[in-house]
Design brief:
The complex is a heterodimer. Chain A is of the alpha/beta class. Helices cover 37% and strands 14% of the residues of chain A. Classes of the chains: A alpha/beta, B alpha/beta. The interface between A and B is medium-sized, with 28 and 19 residues.
């Protein structure tokens, strides 16, 4: 088999072609089998150290990475600013230097600033310690592992990604999930539509190869996949539309709208969900929703990435 | 599904692969010899275990797949009961993942039966250093607690690095450490075992 993945760190999906993404998803299929067994652990990363460096709060993603590392037998250390010297004034890069001195084999980074994961990767390389880095979300920039698990979920449930109509709804401007998913789904050959109120749609987003719509009913009429995004009040989205109630009426996925979707269409959400805002409770819990399945396969996808990026040779080939 | 003949580089580092041109190759087993060896192994499995009740076969991917399928078919025919057969990928249990230049591809494991309390016959095409079998033993035990595990291989080529031996052997073949043994066992009738001499 040919070389499929030539990255040393996963900072964004931009560095991956269709073959590379497929290689990660295929590896995750085998990892998913481990998660379905009674003994959910393999010895692959025994003796390797994985540091989860979370400068920004996260429950789901951090836990998912922690379980993924442990199921591969890595020693997993969680490091978050609330319990560290960051509160005492240490800079991000000083923190990284200190952790690097403890010889980790892979670092998973979540940060509130766009570009933080790349900055840390460059910093480590400049220090002569090119530790592989996985970006677990940096500001409004990228969240590649979320996009990969979304691709895995869709491919697994619908059998393919190419040619599907995927509509992403909500706060596109503030969403790293939207940005990574646009890159991921278009790379894999899906037709992507983004939908939301004009202030939440970034200018020139069409250049990423997507269609723009401001009317939810029209945007989801032909959709095979509807991905609802959370309104990110912590990133200032609240100031860009009149009220959450009005947003829910115009852009929320309620039962009436869900019933009109194509038969077999999937409803997704990266979580955490705001019930009654972008998605109504009965839709989030309904049979078309694969929200919890996304969380489940997230562990397998992260196991695949840890395996493919951790330790080993000069480059990763299939 | 008709599956293809499979060729595998048995635990040998890609860097140790002999360069083309300076090697000789010869066929060491032909179709008839392979068939006879398979039938003998099938008889030995039945004799040793007094039938095939509570016996399951697990082929080690990818080299043991074709061999395991053929053995299962022979056993089912001889004993007139189906012999369950599954396939296992042991990549994640290998001890040399980080010693190789490239990460091996992880294949799927397909085992739709319980190993708890069963006699598991591990099936591989070539027994060489024993490291693949060591990994397979760990992998099987993570699926449950079998009553016993036995090992069937088509070729034992020597050079063991671990205290492991096979219960059922098709043919013992003396080889050099750098030689390559290619086993092709498919269903399309051009089975062979080829020995390529290394430098």
């Amino acid at each position: 088999m040919e070389s499929a993945l030539k990255i040393k760190s996963l900072l964004d999906l931009e560095g991956l072609d269709r073959e590379g993404i497929t290689h990660i998803l295929d590896t995750a299929v085998s990892m998913k089998q481990i998660n379905e067994r009674v003994i959910k652990k393999v010895p692959t990363l025994k003796g390797r150290t994985q540091i989860n460096l979370f400068f920004e709060p996260s429950t789901r993603t951090r836990t998912s990475f922690e379980i993924a590392g442990k199921r591969l037998s890595a020693d997993v250390i969680n490091f978050s600013p609330s319990s560290s010297s960051l509160t005492k004034g240490e800079t991000t890069l000083d923190t990284v230097d200190n952790l690097q001195a403890m010889s980790p084999d892979i670092i998973v980074v979540r940060h509130k600033s766009a570009g933080a994961a790349e900055m840390i990767t460059r910093h480590l390389a400049a220090r002569g310690a090119p530790v592989p880095v996985i970006n677990a979300g940096d500001g409004a920039h990228a969240h590649p592992t979320q996009a990969l698990l979304d691709l895995f979920s869709v491919r697994d449930r619908l059998g393919r990604v190419e040619g599907l109509n995927v509509t992403i709804v909500g706060d596109i401007a503030n969403s790293r999930v939207a940005r990574s998913n646009i890159i991921g789904f278009t790379t894999m050959g899906a037709n992507v539509t983004v939908c939301g109120p004009p202030p939440l749609i970034p200018a020139q987003v069409e250049k990423m190869g997507v269609r723009v719509s401001h009317h939810l009913d029209e945007a989801v009429a032909d959709a095979d996949v509807v991905m609802m995004l959370r309104i990110q009040l912590e990133r200032g989205a609240g100031g860009r539309f009149p009220s959450l109630r009005e947003y829910a009426i115009r852009y929320g996925l309620n039962a009436r709208r869900a019933e009109r979707l194509k038969p077999g269409a999937l409803i997704m959400h990266p979580g955490p969900i705001n019930r009654g805002v972008e998605i109504s409770p009965e839709v989030a819990d309904g049979e078309r929703s694969i929200i919890l399945y996304q969380v489940e396969v997230g562990v397998a996808v992260r196991m695949a990435l840890l395996y493919l990026l951790c330790g080993g040779g000069d480059e990763i080939t299939a | 599904m008709a599956f293809q003949a499979m060729v595998r580089n048995h635990g040998q580092d890609a860097r140790a692969t002999p360069k083309g041109g300076s090697m000789r190759q010869r066929k060491i087993l032909d179709q008839d010899e392979i068939n006879r060896a398979l039938r003998r192994i099938a008889h030995e499995i039945v004799e040793r275990n007094k039938g095939i009740a509570d016996l399951v076969l697990i082929g080690i991917r990818t080299g043991g797949e074709g061999f395991a399928r053929r053995l299962a078919a022979l056993l089912s025919e001889m004993e007139a009961v189906p012999a369950p057969v599954g396939f296992m990928d042991i990549t994640l249990y290998r001890d040399d993942i980080f010693h190789q230049k490239t990460h091996p591809v992880v294949h799927a494991t397909n085992i739709d039966f319980k190993v708890e309390g069963k006699t598991v016959v591990l099936v591989d095409d070539v027994l060489f250093t024993g490291r693949t079998v060591r990994a397979a033993l760990d992998a099987v035990i993570d699926l449950g607690r079998p009553r016993r595990i036995q090992l069937a291989v088509l070729i034992d080529r020597g050079h063991r690095e671990l205290p492991i031996r096979a219960d059922f052997v098709g043919r013992n073949i003396p080889t050099g450490r750098a030689d390559l043994v290619e086993v092709k066992v498919g269903q399309d009738g051009d089975d062979s075992v080829i020995l390529q001499e290394g430098e």
